[in-house]
Amino acid sequence: MPQLFDRENFFNAVRTRIYHGLSQSQVAGCEAILTEAERRGLGTPETAYILATVFWETARAMQPVKEIGEGRGRAYGTPDPATRKRYYGRGLVQLTWKENYVKFGKVCGADLVNDPDLALELPIALKVVFEGMVGGLFTGKKLGDYLSGSGTDYVGARRVVNGTDQANIIASFARKFEAALAPLSAPAGPPASATATRSGILCRLKSYLGY
Fold first, then answer.
1. How many of the other CB atoms lie within 10 Å of CB of 40?
2. What is the CATH number of the domain that holds 70?
3. Among 6, 75, 158, 197, which has the minimal tally of Cβ within 10 Å of its Cβ?
4. Distance separating alpha carbons of residues 28 and 30, to the nearest angstrom
Protein backbone atom coordinates (compact mmCIF):
# COMPACT_ATOMS: atom_id res chain seq x y z
CA MET A 1 0.00 0.00 0.00
CA PRO A 2 1.48 3.42 -0.95
CA GLN A 3 2.65 5.56 1.92
CA LEU A 4 0.40 8.51 2.67
CA PHE A 5 1.66 11.63 4.41
CA ASP A 6 -0.10 13.47 7.23
CA ARG A 7 -0.86 16.85 5.66
CA GLU A 8 -1.83 18.61 8.88
CA ASN A 9 1.39 17.58 10.59
CA PHE A 10 3.45 18.46 7.50
CA PHE A 11 2.09 21.95 6.92
CA ASN A 12 2.15 22.84 10.61
CA ALA A 13 5.80 21.83 10.76
CA VAL A 14 7.04 23.55 7.58
CA ARG A 15 5.04 26.67 8.34
CA THR A 16 6.99 27.22 11.55
CA ARG A 17 10.35 25.48 10.98
CA ILE A 18 11.12 26.22 7.34
CA TYR A 19 8.96 28.99 5.89
CA HIS A 20 7.77 31.05 8.88
CA GLY A 21 4.45 31.41 7.08
CA LEU A 22 3.12 29.88 3.85
CA SER A 23 1.38 31.43 0.84
CA GLN A 24 -1.41 29.62 -0.96
CA SER A 25 0.83 29.03 -3.98
CA GLN A 26 3.51 27.47 -1.75
CA VAL A 27 0.90 25.20 -0.19
CA ALA A 28 -0.35 24.20 -3.65
CA GLY A 29 3.17 23.39 -4.82
CA CYS A 30 3.95 21.27 -1.78
CA GLU A 31 0.61 19.51 -2.10
CA ALA A 32 1.26 18.67 -5.75
CA ILE A 33 4.65 17.14 -4.86
CA LEU A 34 3.22 15.13 -1.95
CA THR A 35 0.38 13.81 -4.09
CA GLU A 36 2.71 12.73 -6.90
CA ALA A 37 5.11 11.14 -4.40
CA GLU A 38 2.22 9.16 -2.92
CA ARG A 39 1.02 8.13 -6.38
CA ARG A 40 4.48 6.80 -7.20
CA GLY A 41 4.86 5.07 -3.84
CA LEU A 42 7.92 7.05 -2.75
CA GLY A 43 9.16 6.90 0.82
CA THR A 44 9.98 9.72 3.21
CA PRO A 45 13.67 10.33 2.27
CA GLU A 46 12.97 10.56 -1.48
CA THR A 47 9.99 12.85 -0.95
CA ALA A 48 11.93 15.04 1.48
CA TYR A 49 14.80 15.44 -0.98
CA ILE A 50 12.50 16.35 -3.86
CA LEU A 51 10.79 18.97 -1.67
CA ALA A 52 14.17 20.37 -0.61
CA THR A 53 15.44 20.50 -4.19
CA VAL A 54 12.34 22.32 -5.43
CA PHE A 55 12.50 24.62 -2.40
CA TRP A 56 16.05 25.59 -3.39
CA GLU A 57 15.65 25.69 -7.18
CA THR A 58 12.53 27.91 -7.03
CA ALA A 59 13.87 30.19 -4.28
CA ARG A 60 11.16 28.88 -1.91
CA ALA A 61 8.28 29.56 -4.33
CA MET A 62 7.41 25.84 -4.84
CA GLN A 63 6.03 26.83 -8.24
CA PRO A 64 7.69 26.64 -11.69
CA VAL A 65 9.92 29.65 -12.29
CA LYS A 66 12.13 31.11 -15.01
CA GLU A 67 15.87 31.36 -14.47
CA ILE A 68 16.86 34.81 -13.25
CA GLY A 69 18.37 36.65 -16.20
CA GLU A 70 16.88 34.10 -18.62
CA GLY A 71 20.28 32.68 -19.53
CA ARG A 72 21.89 36.01 -20.28
CA GLY A 73 25.64 35.55 -20.83
CA ARG A 74 25.33 31.76 -21.19
CA ALA A 75 25.38 29.70 -24.37
CA TYR A 76 21.91 28.28 -23.74
CA GLY A 77 20.57 31.83 -23.41
CA THR A 78 21.29 32.51 -27.08
CA PRO A 79 18.42 31.95 -29.56
CA ASP A 80 18.66 28.55 -31.24
CA PRO A 81 19.39 28.86 -35.00
CA ALA A 82 16.57 26.48 -35.96
CA THR A 83 13.77 27.43 -33.57
CA ARG A 84 14.80 30.93 -32.45
CA LYS A 85 13.94 29.84 -28.91
CA ARG A 86 16.17 30.19 -25.87
CA TYR A 87 16.55 27.13 -23.67
CA TYR A 88 17.37 28.76 -20.35
CA GLY A 89 16.21 27.36 -17.02
CA ARG A 90 12.51 26.82 -16.46
CA GLY A 91 10.45 24.70 -14.10
CA LEU A 92 10.56 23.37 -10.54
CA VAL A 93 14.12 22.26 -11.27
CA GLN A 94 15.83 24.46 -13.84
CA LEU A 95 15.67 22.68 -17.19
CA THR A 96 18.41 24.04 -19.49
CA TRP A 97 19.88 23.31 -22.95
CA LYS A 98 17.92 22.32 -26.05
CA GLU A 99 18.79 18.63 -25.82
CA ASN A 100 17.11 18.45 -22.43
CA TYR A 101 14.00 20.16 -23.75
CA VAL A 102 13.96 17.55 -26.53
CA LYS A 103 14.39 14.66 -24.07
CA PHE A 104 11.82 15.80 -21.53
CA GLY A 105 9.40 16.89 -24.22
CA LYS A 106 9.23 13.26 -25.34
CA VAL A 107 8.79 12.05 -21.76
CA CYS A 108 6.05 14.58 -21.01
CA GLY A 109 4.31 14.35 -24.37
CA ALA A 110 4.69 18.11 -24.89
CA ASP A 111 6.44 20.17 -27.55
CA LEU A 112 8.96 21.79 -25.25
CA VAL A 113 11.30 22.47 -28.17
CA ASN A 114 8.97 24.84 -30.01
CA ASP A 115 7.24 26.09 -26.86
CA PRO A 116 9.76 25.88 -24.00
CA ASP A 117 7.49 27.90 -21.70
CA LEU A 118 5.33 24.78 -21.39
CA ALA A 119 7.95 23.70 -18.85
CA LEU A 120 6.45 26.36 -16.58
CA GLU A 121 3.11 24.54 -16.38
CA LEU A 122 2.88 22.70 -13.06
CA PRO A 123 1.81 19.25 -14.37
CA ILE A 124 4.68 19.24 -16.87
CA ALA A 125 7.17 20.67 -14.38
CA LEU A 126 6.20 17.94 -11.89
CA LYS A 127 6.79 15.20 -14.43
CA VAL A 128 10.18 16.69 -15.30
CA VAL A 129 11.19 16.68 -11.62
CA PHE A 130 10.05 13.15 -10.85
CA GLU A 131 11.33 11.57 -14.07
CA GLY A 132 14.57 13.50 -13.73
CA MET A 133 15.21 12.64 -10.09
CA VAL A 134 13.52 9.27 -9.60
CA GLY A 135 14.13 7.98 -13.12
CA GLY A 136 17.63 9.42 -13.42
CA LEU A 137 16.98 11.43 -16.59
CA PHE A 138 18.83 14.54 -15.42
CA THR A 139 22.32 13.13 -14.93
CA GLY A 140 22.00 9.35 -15.09
CA LYS A 141 22.00 9.21 -11.28
CA LYS A 142 18.77 8.26 -9.45
CA LEU A 143 17.52 9.09 -5.97
CA GLY A 144 17.58 5.36 -5.26
CA ASP A 145 21.36 5.44 -5.69
CA TYR A 146 21.65 7.62 -2.56
CA LEU A 147 18.43 7.14 -0.62
CA SER A 148 17.64 3.50 0.04
CA GLY A 149 17.26 0.95 2.76
CA SER A 150 21.04 0.80 3.12
CA GLY A 151 21.44 4.50 3.94
CA THR A 152 20.41 8.10 3.41
CA ASP A 153 23.00 10.28 1.69
CA TYR A 154 21.34 13.66 1.24
CA VAL A 155 24.61 15.35 0.33
CA GLY A 156 25.48 12.84 -2.37
CA ALA A 157 21.93 12.94 -3.73
CA ARG A 158 22.64 16.35 -5.26
CA ARG A 159 24.43 14.46 -8.05
CA VAL A 160 20.99 13.46 -9.28
CA VAL A 161 20.47 17.06 -10.41
CA ASN A 162 23.66 19.12 -10.51
CA GLY A 163 26.94 17.65 -9.32
CA THR A 164 27.74 18.91 -5.84
CA ASP A 165 26.45 22.48 -6.29
CA GLN A 166 24.97 23.68 -2.97
CA ALA A 167 24.80 20.04 -1.84
CA ASN A 168 25.19 20.71 1.88
CA ILE A 169 22.60 23.48 1.98
CA ILE A 170 20.00 21.39 0.14
CA ALA A 171 20.79 18.41 2.39
CA SER A 172 20.06 20.54 5.46
CA PHE A 173 16.63 21.44 4.08
CA ALA A 174 15.98 17.80 3.17
CA ARG A 175 16.48 16.87 6.83
CA LYS A 176 13.98 19.53 7.87
CA PHE A 177 11.43 18.31 5.36
CA GLU A 178 12.03 14.74 6.47
CA ALA A 179 11.23 15.71 10.06
CA ALA A 180 7.95 17.24 8.86
CA LEU A 181 6.89 14.18 6.86
CA ALA A 182 4.99 11.88 9.18
CA PRO A 183 3.15 8.91 7.62
CA LEU A 184 -0.61 9.14 7.93
CA SER A 185 -1.65 6.70 10.65
CA ALA A 186 -4.33 4.16 9.94
CA PRO A 187 -7.54 4.77 11.93
CA ALA A 188 -7.18 3.09 15.30
CA GLY A 189 -9.47 0.16 15.99
CA PRO A 190 -11.58 -0.06 19.15
CA PRO A 191 -9.71 -0.73 22.41
CA ALA A 192 -9.31 -4.40 23.30
CA SER A 193 -11.44 -3.90 26.42
CA ALA A 194 -14.29 -2.49 24.35
CA THR A 195 -14.11 -5.44 21.96
CA ALA A 196 -14.15 -7.90 24.85
CA THR A 197 -17.13 -6.13 26.42
CA ARG A 198 -19.14 -6.26 23.20
CA SER A 199 -18.26 -9.95 22.79
CA GLY A 200 -19.46 -10.70 26.30
CA ILE A 201 -22.73 -8.85 25.78
CA LEU A 202 -23.33 -10.73 22.51
CA CYS A 203 -22.76 -14.10 24.22
CA ARG A 204 -25.20 -13.27 27.02
CA LEU A 205 -27.77 -12.07 24.51
CA LYS A 206 -27.50 -15.32 22.53
CA SER A 207 -27.88 -17.35 25.74
CA TYR A 208 -30.95 -15.33 26.76
CA LEU A 209 -32.55 -15.91 23.35
CA GLY A 210 -31.76 -19.62 23.43
CA TYR A 211 -29.13 -19.68 20.66
1. 12
2. 3.30.20.10
3. 75
4. 6
